[in-house]
Each structure stands twice: as C-alpha cells, then as structure tokens.
Amino acid sequence: MKRIDHLAPGTIRKRQGALARCFDWMTRKHAEIMAQNPLRLLKRGFASYTEADSEALAAHGKKVRVDEERDRRLADDEEAKIVAYLQDRADERLLFELALHTAMRMRECYTLHSAQVNLVKRTIFLERTKNGSSRQVPLPTPMVALLSEYVSKHRETIANRGDRLLPFWDGNLDVQALDVATRNLSIRFARIFRLAGVPGLHFHDLRHEATCRLYERTTLSDVLIAKITGHKDIRMLRRYASLRGSDLAAHLW
C-alpha cells in the first residue's frame, strides 16, 4: 500500500490507528472471535520506508516521504496576542486554553461534555480518546478559574445543546462528521492565529507546547506525564527529554 499510494508515514499510522481501534472494540466485545489485536503488535517504525521501498519508488520517479516532526513553540508574546484577539470570543478562547494548558488533543477538547469536568477535583475525565484508553486530565489553577467562569456564564446554553461544553460539534459520533469538525476548526484557528499576529502556528502545536511546559515547569516523571498527555508509548516523549538538561546538570559536580 505504501508503494502504490506513496503515503506519508504519519498518514499510514493514522490509518493503522483507526483500524486498530475497531479491532480493540472487537477484542473487548467479542474476545471469542478476536482475542488479541494484531495491529497492536506491529513493531515501532512499521510505517517508515525501507531501502527497498526507496529503490522501488525511485524506479517510478518518486521520492520517499519521511516524517517531519513539528517543533513550533510559542514565543514570549504570542500567547498574549492570541488571548487578546480572543478576548470577546469565549468559545474559541476556551478551546485554545484547554489545548494549551492540558495537552489534550483538539477532538478531546471540542467533544467535551460538562459532566466530564470536575472543578472540585480539578480534573477532566476522557472516556473516548485517540488510543482507545480513558484517562484523567488534571487542571492547572488558571484553567479551573476559566472553566468555572465559562460554565457559570453559559450554563443554560450548554444545557440546550445537550450538555456539550463547546458549540463546535453537534454530538454526531460518526467518524466522518468528527473529521469535518476537526478540519473546520483547524482552518478556523489557522486564520485566528494569523489575524492575531502569530503566523505559522497550527492548533496541534498547542499540544506540543503544553507537553513541553509539563517538562519545563514540573518535576513529574515521564510515566506521569504520559498519563496526562495520553501517550501510550513513553518512547514518544523522548524528544522532550532535552528540556530537562539543566536539571541533570544540577546533579553534576
């Protein structure tokens, strides 16, 4: 499939992930038919192209597509610029702040119901996640205050839309409907960031920024950070290890 469609490794992993979640459901509901999910047994790097793949693609005049990890961080004044632009746009601001302060994925944010938010315990419970596992997401103090204010001001509106915290999704769990909502929000925020004077920022970069801040501002272990961010494989967090280089240096003579 890789050679025929010439898919990027990230696209291959997304398709594998979608199918794997279907198989996860089968293993939970019909273990007598499928006791183990074979797609969860794929070795790391399965989506990468081999040397043989490169030669086959070169024979057809094509180049190998490789992973391109984005490392876009918010500059010192960029968060303030975005917040100022969203000052009178409460829905967009809440979505932006949720992603930036919790490391939640866009879909995890905009599909939230108010019942998932526990302001007393300062947590958000996520039942439907990308990797199929539920998790508790802790809320920093500024996020608790913002959520409390938003829920208080929009309580009636939230109730009228079926307890959905934000208005960007109609409650349809169909994959295609969710994909459309995600695409529309990505386009909307690309425009917001540009108009706020923060060009080149993607919404998904906020998850990267939030994860970086967990490493920079806390002493949480990789395991605990993975529980917050929802990374199933801790090895995916290795790219953030350098952010604690100064911590390691402090232990040397």
Describe the structure.
The chain is mainly alpha-helical and 253 residues long. It has 2 domains: 2-59; 78-244, Intergrase catalytic core (hpI Integrase, Chain A), CATH 1.10.443. The chain contains 12 helices and 3 strands. The chain has helices at residues 2-5, 9-29, 51-59, 78-85, 90-102, 106-110, 141-153, 155-160, 175-195, 205-217, 222-229, 245-249; strands spanning 117-118, 123-126, 135-138. Strands 1-2-3 form a 3-stranded antiparallel sheet. Helix 5 (90-102) packs antiparallel against helix 7 and helix 5 packs across helix 10. The longest helix has 21 residues, at 9-29. The mean pLDDT is 86.
Give the CATH superfamily of the largest domain.
Intergrase catalytic core
Order of SSEs, N→C? HHHHHHEEEHHHHHH
Question: Which band does the percent of strand residues land in?
Answer: under 5%
Low-confidence stretches: none
Structure classification: mainly alpha
The CATH topology of the largest domain: hpI Integrase, Chain A
For the secondary structure, the number of strands is 3
CATH class of the largest domain: Mainly Alpha
- Structural domain tally: 2
In spatial order, strands of the major sheet run 1-2-3
Outline the biggest β-sheet.
Answer: 3 strands, antiparallel
Instruction: Give the C-alpha Rg.
Output: 20 Å
In DSSP terms (H or I, runs of 4 or more residues), the helix count works out at 12
Gap between N and C termini: 53 Å
Name given to the CATH architecture of the largest domain: Orthogonal Bundle
> What sort of overall outline do the alpha carbons produce when their principal axes are compared?
globular
Q: Mean pLDDT, nearest integer? A: 86
Overall helicity: 40-55%
